[in-house]
């Protein structure tokens, strides 16, 4: 049952990649910049006064994860920056690995990316793992992060959470359509190995760190924060957005009753409207 629900919730995201490459190959130019010791792939579009950094989820990349946002957010209101984290998308080499400080490393790279682009103030939109990275960024770059929007994210994992991940460890149990999109982007071996390493990481976090990912970061976040969540999310149970809402001092919570993990894709128009409204508030 979990595998079937997981396949369905990611189907939209995975089917976007090839279409986006074709549609934007001549109009949306991705480029690379050296950040510390890694060539980071990123996209920068728009010329609006508010800068947004979009942070993708596990194995995600610029166009697999944020097509509706890149397409339709107002580029006169926003300057949009989207990146491939180290080891994902086209920010390779190096291969992705998952040391204990993995999320904190990504946060440091993302902060350094914005410094390299000479962008002093920005807001963050983070999905899933990207939301965890965004939470940490907001706790570290307090003077730079203006607003924070996260969805499908968590600050810790439970035994139940890790059991959910284990049920979808074997990519052969994924739908062929979903699996193929990642294989085309990464190759089967890299895709499978990286996904398995991701599941292993959370097993280690549960056993060696009591499940804690970034609990201590939450009290340090001063940016107004919008927590969005699909009530039917099969990967991130409702206790997680409730916990974030409780621990983040300027947090607000919005639930999509029928939403799953990919609410920004499934309900793109409503989601983008929520983003607009939140960013417009004083």
Explain what the structure shows.
With 282 residues, this protein is an alpha/beta fold. It has a domain at 31-155 and 215-280: Alpha/Beta hydrolase fold, catalytic domain (Rossmann fold, 3-Layer(aba) Sandwich). Helices cover 47% and strands 18% of the residues. It is built from twelve helices and eight strands. Strands 1-2-4-3-5-6-7-8 form an eight-stranded mixed beta sheet, sandwiched between helices. A hairpin with a 2-residue loop joins strand 1 and strand 2 (38-45). Helix 4 crosses helix 5 and helix 6 runs antiparallel to helix 8. It is globular. The N and C termini lie far apart (44 Å). Residues 51-183 form the AB hydrolase-1 domain. It comes from Aphis craccivora (Cowpea aphid).
What's the short story on this structure?
By secondary structure, this protein is α/β, with parallel strands linked by helices.
Name of the CATH class of the domain at 31-155 and 215-280: Alpha Beta
Structural class: alpha/beta
Helix and strand element order:
HEEEHHEHEHEHHHHEHEHH
Tell me the radius of gyration.
Answer: 17 Å
List the total number of helices: 12
CATH architecture of the domain at 31-155 and 215-280: 3-Layer(aba) Sandwich
Looking at this structure, what is the CATH superfamily of the domain at 31-155 and 215-280?
A: Alpha/Beta hydrolase fold, catalytic domain
Proportion of residues in helical segments: 40-55%
Q: What fold name goes in the CATH topology slot of the domain at 31-155 and 215-280?
A: Rossmann fold
How many runs of DSSP E, i.e. beta strands?
8
Largest β sheet strand count, sense and barrel closure: 8 strands, mixed
- pLDDT < 50 stretches: 12-26
Quote the distance from N terminus to C terminus.
44 Å
Biggest sheet: strand arrangement = 1-2-4-3-5-6-7-8
